[in-house]
Design brief:
The protein has 161 residues and is α+β, with helices and mostly antiparallel strands. 37% of the residues lie in helices and 16% in strands. A four-stranded antiparallel beta sheet has the order 1-4-2-3. A hairpin with a 5-residue loop joins strand 2 (58-64) and strand 3 (70-77). The chain is globular. 37% of the residues are buried.
């Protein structure tokens, strides 16, 4: 069994402002299981691999090409620990773009979000990540209110959202 890929320096630098912004809503377990305390899970962009390595039901994920370019930013908030892998499989099954995605997306970085985070905050985190990373693929990212970060949305009482 091969070891999980490490976070390439260029990708780590690109993710730094994203992590700084959405950090308050990230799920960083105390042990961070082999991630050195980092909130980022790095794995090959394969649905099978992602299901095996990522146990998050809510997350922002970023697909990278072999030149360390950001290809796509997405989010998922579903039941079950295989949510990110299931969502990646749906991207690959897309009837027109699936083939291209399977060949272009080489690495996936996943930012697991805190348990119980509101869907609005998940979508806001995706919007901010897309705004900061400017992915080559995908354009239907949630618009962000520049005055509201994911942390401010997550902190609001449910009735105020």
């Amino acid at each position: 069994m091969s070891a999980a890929p490490t976070l390439p320096t260029a990708i780590g630098q690109a993710l730094r402002p994203v992590i700084r912004l959405i950090g308050p809503v990230l799920d960083v377990p105390a042990a961070a299981q082999g991630r050195g305390g980092s909130p980022v899970v790095v794995c090959r962009a394969s649905a099978v691999v992602v299901r095996r390595q990522v146990a998050a039901s809510c997350a922002v994920y970023v697909a990278w090409d072999n030149r360390r370019g950001c290809r796509y930013v997405g989010s998922v908030c579903r039941q079950g620990p295989g949510a990110v892998g299931d969502r990646l499989a749906e991207h690959y099954a897309h009837r027109t773009a699936g083939g291209s995605r399977r060949t272009t997306w080489c690495l996936l970085t996943v930012l697991p979000l805190s348990e119980g985070i509101p869907l609005e905050a998940v979508r806001n985190a995706e919007g901010w990540a897309a705004r900061l990373l400017n992915p080559a693929d995908g354009s239907a990212h949630p618009r962000v209110d520049l005055m509201q970060t994911p942390a401010t949305l997550a902190a609001l009482p449910a009735q105020a959202r």
